[in-house]
Amino acid sequence: MERLDMAETLARKAGVNLKDARDALARENWDMLDAMLLLRRESGARAGKKGEADVDNGKAQGDAGWLSKAIAWIGDMVARGSRCFVSVSRDGKPRFEVTVTIAVLLALVLHGFFLFGVAVMLLMGYRFSFISEARDREMRRDVDEAAQAAREVQDRSAVNSLGGNA
Fold first, then answer.
1. What is the pLDDT at residue 166?
2. CA–CA distance from 122 to each of 119, 128, 131 (Å)?
3. Which of 41-45, 49-53, 119-123, 125-129 has the lowest mean pLDDT?
């Protein structure tokens, strides 16, 4: 890696300008890790000198960081729930599937009606099952393999019928 590339990478990762990154690399004999540690030590020393105003600002940034982490976690849970399903079947025949995200939202918003509906469906012989993302992938792979096998049998059958007529 060239020195300019190293300085640009360090500046981006450390959140400093290019001149500070080059200076830190030069002081640390162009060792990226040592330069990163030097920049962190220096930024910590500068933050300690600024006083209590920075402490309050850091607390506000910490609160904002907590909020953004919570929002990111909720987004991740919604995405995961959208890849998993609750399957409803009766007499071994699937009736419908709904994503876990939708099922949870229905349960939260219409909890009384939702629970009553689930209880009635259970009494009527409906069965509920959870289909995870991994299980869904396995089922799709099995269906694809079965379709491939069916195509191969069909191709063999077509070849055999051509050979018999000739």
1. 45
2. 5, 8, 18
3. 49-53
